[in-house]
Amino acid sequence: MPPSSPRRLSLQQIVEGQRRAAFVGREAELGLFRANFALPPEDPRHRFVFHVRGNAGVGKTSLVREWREVAGEFGALTASVDESADSVPDVLGAIAEQFAEQGHPLKVLDRLLATYRRALHDAAGRLAADNETSAGGPSPGALAAAQAGLIAAGAIPVVGALAGGIDPAVVARGAGGLRAVFGGRARQAEEARLLAEPIRVLTPVFVAEIDRVADAVPWVALFLDTYERTAPQLDRWLADLLTPGRYGELPANLVLTLAGQRRLDPVHWGDRGRLVADVPLGPFTEEESRQLLTGRGVVAETVVREVLRLSGGLPVLVSTLAANPGAAGEANATAVERFLAGESDPVRRAAALACALPRRFDEDLVAVAVPHGSHVVPGLYDWLHELPFVAEPYTGRSRYHAVVRAPMLRLQRTGSPQRWKAAHDRLAEAFAARRDAAAEGLDPERLWASQPWRRAALDVLYHRLCARPRTALPEALRAGIALCDQRPSRARHWARTLAEAGEDADNAVLRDWGRDLLAAITDHGPRPTAALGLLLTRAELTDTDRAAALVVRAWDRFRAGELDAALSDHGRAIAVDPRSERAHQGRAVILRSLGRYEEALADLDRAEEIAPAWAWAVRERGETYRRMGRLEEALTVLDRAHALDPSDAVPLGSRGLVRHVLGRHEEALDDFDRAIALWPEYAWALVRRARVRTALGDPVGALADLDRAEELSPGLAGTEGERGEVYRATGRHEEAVACYGRALALDPDYAWAHGSRALALEALGRVAEALADLDRALELDPGYAWARAQRERLRAAAGS
């Protein structure tokens, strides 16, 4: 059998090898990092964190790349992440993927991340469905507390889902509040807490996985590049990661490297100085610059001196000019202009300029950006990757170094404004085609939640803003309203797009707006109120846009328990745009939560008048009738909601509950069966189906439903309360009392559980305790008529 041929190297491997061979200078920094691996972790001189810092162009990324290779020489398992991963789950996912490529998969973490992503998508799409509430509404304080964990985590796009019609009583009910609601959407028991506290759940698993693989390798080395962009999201987490006992014990053979432009924030890192090696980078010394130039064959003293003058010692410019010093005698030329002047091939010169236009590019975009098209010049994409200022980061899409890209953009913008606009128009069209392709099969209401669609859409905005800042600004602001309806990281990407377009197009309005919006999003945490307030000051917004922004802000205020402000914003939205069906529907949900049913119905009348085929508004009407006790009307409306959208499980669930209350248990069971068949994780329907099965004399089936609901959504007071009902209905009163007790331990303000436990206590002859429970139920909910009737009955019986 002939010997197998060696595996062919990829283009990227060849280019990377050439770059490594050409790397010069930074001997002290390389020596510092290399020596650290020779020191055992117990040695006081050993450092667990390296922080490389310096201005753009000083070679941080190149040094980090070399350090990663050095770590590999010592047998380290390595992973590198840049600003494309700007949340903790994204960072963990990138590390796990790279470890798996090196033969060390983090299987437990991978499974949990997959669970998180799936549940995140499911929760966002289904949150509005869970619109059942127990007796007694929450206080604004309970509402705010219930949502604080999820909002602070920045983990879920809750605004859009909440705007779909979830009641504050749903949000804050039970022990878990929003956690309980999202848990009800979970496929596995862990998901309720995973969605509420992703960092707290994922990080200990990550630490345990790192500890496990660390036993199999000499070292583990993690690298976080462009840290100046991700620090606001990662600083606190990394500092906590290094805090003893916070998330578990990290292995001693772990080395973490951060690379950014600024010093580490002393608020998070001030007391961890002994762990960190601070490595400031400045420009190359003249000796280092000459060494690089000599290695590239640039030895003529006049040329060397000109390169030294033009580059200022910035390694990226020294490397660029070493590749192509340019023509002599151009005293006023910049480093980039010299580089371009030295390229004799006009197509390559044009390509080097044109490919600076997209923020990131691939081979297909080269064909769009370059006027001649890459099909005319084979190998153009490969040639670009040989340039010293072109990098292919961890995301796989290539980009220019900012120090080189900025002057290239300026040359094109000032040299021919018409060609500048035409090129950006072509790129905007190319990204629009990608955006439209990514929309296939997606719910139009959920486009911004899809990463491929969102990335392409933001690139469309960027290029349109660069081509025509004034005319494209309204579209960009409109996108911002939608993204304030999403996770904070998504809104940051949008604000950064405006800022970058302003910088690259040299437009002060865009630049200032991007800066102000970034500050509003970053400084005000996960709440979008500040950013939306800025957007609402813009004259470019139409009345429809302004109403949409007010609706988004109203839901943010609703989540924070600011009900009056939320109602005010919905009212202002309606005043601005009386045909905003979402404003009417949103106000109806808040009014309903306050018990103002007739006003809620009036708003739903208007929403349906505006959008008669909008199944969501019809569904909310049916739910409102149900809560008002107008059951026959609820049934008719829920029939219509189901007809409008037969794939929606929620109207079937609500209709099943109405039929159960009407005593039509077999029909109710059929509705719940169909709802759960459409949505197997519909925990709310499982709990209500348990009620129906109990009424039909099937306690075994009822307990099975409750077991499944508990598996999907652990620790909910409502599930334990329903289990108590099953036991009470079958005469197992002691077990019933125990279940009600567990429900009340989870939620002491669960009035219904107090009332139901009273009947179980009465059956056991514990009348005084039963009366105390009924007193407490009425204290919590003075309008609880059933509990009042039971208390009067018990008192009368005791008096006789």
Protein described:
Strand 3 (219-224), helix 12 (227-241) and strand 4 form a beta-alpha-beta unit. The protein is built from 42 helices and seven strands. The strands form two sheets. The protein has a five-stranded parallel beta sheet with strand order 2-3-4-1-5, sandwiched between helices. It is globular and about 110 Å long. 65% of the residues lie in helices and 4% in strands. Helix 15 (301-311) packs antiparallel against helix 16, helix 36 runs parallel beside helix 38 (717-729) and helix 37 (699-712) packs antiparallel against helix 38 (717-729). With 800 residues, the protein is mainly alpha-helical. The model is unreliable at 1-6 and 124-189 (pLDDT under 50). The N and C termini lie far apart (102 Å).
Brief synopsis:
The chain is mainly α and 800 residues long.
Q: N- to C-terminal separation?
A: 102 Å
Percent of residues in β-strands: under 5%
Mean pLDDT score: 82
Numbering strands along the chain, what is their spatial order in the largest sheet?
2-3-4-1-5
Largest sheet report:
5 strands, parallel
Helical content, roughly? 55-70%
Structural class: mainly alpha
Could you give the count of β-strands?
Answer: 7
Cα-atom radius of gyration:
31 Å
Count of DSSP-assigned helices: 42
* Parts with pLDDT < 50 across at least 5 consecutive residues: 1-6, 124-189
User: What characteristic shape results from the CA principal axes?
Assistant: globular
